[in-house]
Amino acid sequence: MKRKGGEGVEKLKPIDKETWQPKTKLGQMVKSGELYSLEDVINSGKPILEPEIIDILLPEMEVDTLEVRTTQRVTDSGKRTKFRIVVVIGDRKGHVGVGVGKSEELKPAMDYAVRNAKKNMISVRTGCGSWECRCNNPHSVPMRTSGKEGSTIVTLKPAPRGLGLAANTIVKKVLGMAGVKDVWSATIGGSNTYNMAMATLKALDALNTLKPAPE
To answer: What is the pTM of this model?
Structure first.
């Protein structure tokens, strides 16, 4: 993975569907073509236990590194250092996931983080909920939504077309990977990178159950 100061977007390499041997019933349904979209998988109610499912359904995925840091643990043999990496993945077309990975080496930690993110993929409901715009194009969020992780709360509000993403760097990266182009946002609580990314993911996921307020 190429990064500049812990940052950088790169395309994920898709797997070969023909050589993949799924181990779960859900994976078998995806390979056979019985389920052909992430929305089908989500509606099935079954958890995504095989990251390869996402590789098959969403072959044009990108990954962006949100945080790279080291942690140390004292053992009988001395101090052991591990890398902890937080990533966001998505196709910029309404699908996004956040993951974290740890390892004593950088590349395995990245691989674990990407695999974890694939298991946390969601489908994002976009729209135009801004009273200033009402263009009916799916460029923003359809309504106000919030998500909480730990002590961090992220609130997203519809914004007019052309405004851009009025958000901090972490929230902006998650929204960008999801395909959201315009939004107002507010963040309260802690500044933990993982919590902030997951709170944003939960705010987007909440749109799948929220109903528009009557006019």
So the answer is: 0.89
